[in-house]
Design a protein that fits this description.
The protein has about 525 residues and is an alpha+beta fold. Helices cover about 30% and strands about 20% of the residues. It starts with a helix and ends with a helix.
C-alpha cells in the first residue's frame, strides 16, 4: 500500500476502535469522543489501563505492534474486571473485538487503581518475556543487529566465524517493509524452515495479492553518514534468487520483500556517480587504481607446483596464513589455492619446495556468461570488467539498445517501471525513452577474495533501499566449533593498523559493575 492508503487504513481502524470501546471510555470517566481521535485516543487509553503514554509509540512500530496490540487488548479487559484466563484467551483470539462484547453487552465497571503486578509466577514470566522481546526487537530493527560471517569473501578483514554488531543508524535505520513477521527472525524460522513473514511470492499475484498490500513503502530514518568508498556494508542481495547459497540464478526473479532478501556483507568499492573498471582483477575507479584500507588484503587464485614434498595445510596456514581452497588437482601434485593474498604470495614464492606459482586469471575479452550483465554483447569476466557507470540519484543518462542491458534491471525491478523494447525503440511506462533519470543511489559491492566471491560482478548494482547497515564491532570470533580467536573478541571492523581487542577492558568493566551493584544492594539492605 502507498502511504496515503495506509493513512486511510489507519483512520478506518480508529473508527473501528472508537465504535468498539467508547462506552468503556465513559465508564472510566472519559468523554466518548476521545475514543475516536487518532493517536490521542491511544494516549487516553493508556491512562485508562494505567500504562505509560509512550506505549502508543510502540503501537505504530511495525513488528513490535504485533506484540503490543494483544497486550493492550488484554490490559483493557483487565481494567474492567475481566481477569480470568478465558477473558485473556477471548481478547486475543478475537483480535480485540472482545471489547465490543464488553462495550455493548457485558455489565462491567472500571477498576480504578488496579494492581499491575501479575497474579502468578507464570504471568510474571510471560510479561517479562514479552517486553524483553519488544525491547530486543526495537534494538535489532533500529539500532544494532547481530550478524555472522558465513563465507570467506572478505577473508583477512572479516573471517568466517566472526560475529558482528551491525549499526542500523549510521546510514539511517530502514523501517520494516514487511509488517506481518516474526520478531528478530529474517526470512525463515530456525529449525522449521518456514517463511517467517506473510507474503505471496507468486509471480502473477505478487503485486495484486491483498497479503502483499500489507507491505509498507520504503522508508528510512535519517542517518548521520553516507556510504564511503571501500567501506564494508551489510545489504540485502538485490537479485535474490537464493533459496540457499548454492542455488544462484541471477536472471530468475525469486520474489521476496526487500527487507527479507538474503543478507550479505561485501566491500563497497564504488559509490553512486563513480565509473568502475576491473583490470586484471584490480578495481579502477574513475581511471585510478582503487587503494584499499590497510586492513584489507586482496586475494587471488593460483596453481602451485611443488618440487618434491607435499605441502601441509596446517603448515601453510600457520607459516604463510594461506587458509582457503587448498587442494591437489592432478597426479603431478599441482596445488590449487583459491585465495592467496599478495603479502602471503611474496613470502610463499621463495619457499624452497616451490617450483612455480601460476596466477589463475581470465583473459581480457573472454566472456563469462555468469557475469553481469549476462548479455552476449559484453565480453566481461571476473578479472576484466567494465567500464561501467554507477547510477546516482537525480542523474540522467542516454538510454539505447547498447546500454540497456546494463540498466534494464535498475529501471524495471529496482525503480518499478514498465520496460518494453519494440524494434529499435525503448518504451518506459508506455512512452518512448531516449534518456533515463535515476530515482536512488546505487553501489558496487565486491569481496576482497576476488576469485571466491559471489558479488556485484554476478548480479550488478545494489540499490540504497537494499542497504541494511554498517558493521562496526566484532564481539566474538570462532575458528570452527572449538577454537575461539581471542585476539578478535571485541575488536572494531574499521580503522587503520592492526585491530586492538577491548575484551579485557570489557571484562573489567563488567565485573566492576556487578561488584558495584552488589555493594549498593548490601548497603541498601543495611540502611
Amino acid at each position: 500500500m502507498t502511504l496515503l492508503q495506509w493513512f486511510i487504513f489507519i483512520l478506518i481502524i480508529q473508527v473501528i476502535h472508537g465504535l468498539g470501546i467508547w462506552k468503556l471510555y465513559t465508564k472510566a470517566g472519559k468523554q466518548a469522543w476521545e475514543a475516536f481521535v487518532p493517536v490521542y485516543n491511544g494516549v487516553v487509553l493508556m491512562k485508562i489501563i494505567s500504562r505509560p503514554w509512550w506505549w502508543v509509540i510502540l503501537l505504530f512500530l511495525p513488528i513490535v505492534n504485533l506484540i503490543m496490540f494483544p497486550v493492550v487488548w488484554v490490559e483493557t479487559a483487565r481494567s474492567f474486571g475481566k481477569n480470568m484466563p478465558i477473558d485473556t484467551f477471548l481478547a486475543i483470539i478475537t483480535l480485540g473485538f472482545y471489547n465490543y462484547y464488553l462495550n455493548y453487552l457485558a455489565d462491567v465497571n472500571y477498576v480504578e487503581n488496579r494492581s499491575l503486578q501479575p497474579k502468578t509466577s507464570g504471568g510474571d514470566w510471560v510479561s517479562s518475556i514479552l517486553f524483553a522481546i519488544v525491547a530486543a526487537t526495537i534494538v535489532h530493527t533500529y539500532f544494532i543487529q547481530p550478524f555472522t560471517i558465513p563465507s570467506s569473501s572478505l577473508e583477512k578483514s572479516l573471517l568466517v566465524g566472526d560475529f558482528l554488531f551491525v549499526s542500523k543508524f549510521h546510514y539511517g535505520a530502514r523501517i520494516p517493509m514487511t509488517t506481518v513477521a516474526a520478531p528478530m527472525v529474517h526470512d525463515t524460522i530456525p529449525k522449521l524452515g518456514n517463511k517467517s513473514y506473510l507474503f505471496d511470492d507468486n509471480f502473477e499475484k505478487r503485486k495484486t495479492s491483498w497479503i502483499n498490500k500489507l507491505q509498507l513503502p520504503y522508508l528510512r530514518l535519517p542517518g548521520f553518514e553516507k556510504i564511503d568508498r571501500n567501506e564494508i556494508v551489510v545489504f540485502n542481495q538485490p537479485a535474490d534468487t537464493l533459496l540457499d547459497m548454492n542455488d544462484f540464478h541471477p536472471d530468475r526473479n525469486y520474489y521476496k520483500p526487500i527487507d527479507k532478501k538474503t543478507n550479505l556483507v561485501k566491500r563497497c568499492v564504488a559509490v553512486a556517480g563513480d565509473s568502475l573498471e576491473v583490470r586484471n582483477g584490480y578495481v579502477y575507479i574513475n581511471g585510478k587504481k582503487n587503494e584499499l584500507p590497510d586492513r584489507a588484503h586482496l586475494q587471488f587464485s593460483y596453481h602451485v607446483q611443488p618440487k618434491t614434498n607435499q605441502f601441509s595445510q596446517k603448515y601453510l596456514k600457520e607459516r604463510y596464513d594461506i587458509t582457503d581452497g587448498f587442494g591437489i588437482i592432478n597426479q603431478q601434485n599441482t596445488y590449487y589455492f583459491s585465495a592467496i593474498s599478495d603479502e602471503a604470495l611474496a613470502k610463499f614464492k621463495n619457499h624452497p619446495n616451490v617450483a612455480s606459482i601460476t596466477p589463475i586469471k581470465k583473459e581480457k575479452g573472454v566472456r563469462d556468461p555468469n557475469i553481469f550483465p549476462h548479455d552476449p554483447n559484453y565480453n566481461w569476466n571476473v578479472d576484466f570488467f567494465g567500464p561501467l557507470y554507477i547510477p546516482e540519484e537525480g542523474k540522467t543518462i542516454d538510454i539505447n539498445l547498447e546500454v540497456l542491458p546494463l540498466y534494464k534491471r535498475v529501471i524495471s525491478e529496482y525503480e518499478d517501471n514498465t520496460l518494453e523494447v519494440k524494434g529499435n525503440q525503448i518504451l518506459i511506462n508506455g512512452e518512448i525513452a531516449n534518456t533515463y533519470t535515476f530515482k536512488q543511489n546505487y553501489y558496487w559491492m565486491m569481496g576482497d577474495n576476488r576469485h571466491n566471491s559471489i558479488d556485484a560482478r554476478a548480479w550488478g548494482f545494489v540499490p540504497f533501499d537494499h542497504v541494511v547497515g554498517k558493521p562496526v564491532f566484532i564481539w566474538m570470533s570462532w575458528d570452527g566449533i572449538k577454537n575461539p580467536r581471542w585476539e578478535r573478541f571485541f575488536t572494531t571492523v574499521s580503522g587503520s593498523g592492526k585491530a586492538s581487542s577491548y575484551f579485557i577492558p570489557f571484562l573489567v568493566l563488567l565485573f566492576g559493575w556487578i561488584g558495584f551493584n552488589k555493594w549498593r544492594a548490601r548497603k541498601k539492605a543495611v540502611n
